[in-house]
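Late entry, evening session. Most of the bench is empty. Finally got around to the prediction I had been postponing all week. Sequence below, unchanged from the version circulated by S.P.
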Amino acid sequence: MSYLARQWQAIGLQSGTNDPANPWFAPVRLNLARPQSSTAVFRRDGRYVSVGEDEVRIFTSGTRGLTSDAPVLFVGEEGEISAKALAGRVAVMLADASGSLERRQSLFNAGAAAVLSVVADAAALARVAELRNEGEYRLDGIGEDRLDGFITAAAMARIVGAEKWRRWQSAAAGSPDFRPQQTGATVTLEAVSAPADVLTHNLVARLPGRNPAKGAVLVLAHWDHFGICAPQSPNDRICNGAIDNASGLAVMTELARRLAAGPVLDRDIYFLATTAEEWGLLGAKAFLRDPPVPLDSIVAAFNLDTVAGAPRDARVAVIGRGLTPLDDAIAGLIAGAGRQRGDDEFASRYLRRQDGWALLQGGVPTLMVTSAFADPATLRDYTAEDYHRPTDEAENLELGGAVQDLLLHEAMVRHFGDSDHWPAVPAG
């Protein structure tokens, strides 16, 4: 991050924190809960059901989490569930590749006492447990203590009954119409974590405009990644992030360079490198909690994530389409750049997994205009081979596609930074 700050200062950007005590680097304090121990005791028809330590793992976001003799409800993979059906129960869900985090969150929101995700076998459980053993982060003083965990399909088959479990799994997979099933089992769950505080930072810069009273445009990209991979690779322990998301930071830096060298825009342009995106969009949420500029003065924001994953002349999708007043202008700018539209519906599956979602929740009109998520085959190849792996290295960057995305974002920022092109007046 210090390297980025030096680059941005050399370009001519100014500190954007609006805090003389913390120029450039806006502090973000996180609470870390590192797992220490867990237990899960299942009963059915008055008898204990044997579930081994290698078949279930429980985690808490606080120091200690406990739920006793809670009914176990199988909720499948998709679909809405009423608070009445979930209240005080432990929800068991099928873990799909794209929506598990969102599904888990929706179940907690509806009142689940805890959430268990079903994994294939003990080996899969060991892999996910190693990831979770790194600890869970949240913003200091924000968030509820929650219990969640993972259980193998074989353990669920013993708890429910093998034939019934087979039918339920088949009926629930990918079905939004699946109705929750009472398992007849209860469970007592407990997890203990060791607490710690972590201080990290967002990097915030500003390119001054002629008339800041007209509002601001925000460009952001996350700077964090995982460092040492978990599970650890026997050959290369460094979990690289050239595409996710050094590419986004590089494009944002070059965008800042080009904008600073060009005509002065009406509006201030803010550049935000967020921390802790991989741990739950926490840097973006911290920006919302203590923004250097009134949030309602930001007329448009653009998130740069996984930029260099698609080749030159790839199609472009818009994550967040239909959620802001920016759509028509963005469509015109994409067409004006000679780019073809990609699969917005596919791209929208990733709406809640990128920093733009946090900003949208805070009322900031935010889009992710992306070629990397516009084509399912392109993204599938990246996620299967390089995503969050040691192989996400610089030689895999698609520089032709990244340059085209840079030029498109320059056109977008210039459009929304000009009050004649986009005469939106900040509220209040």
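Two things to note before I forget:
The longest strand covers residues 181-207.
The chain is about 30% helix and 30% strand.
Will write this up properly tomorrow.
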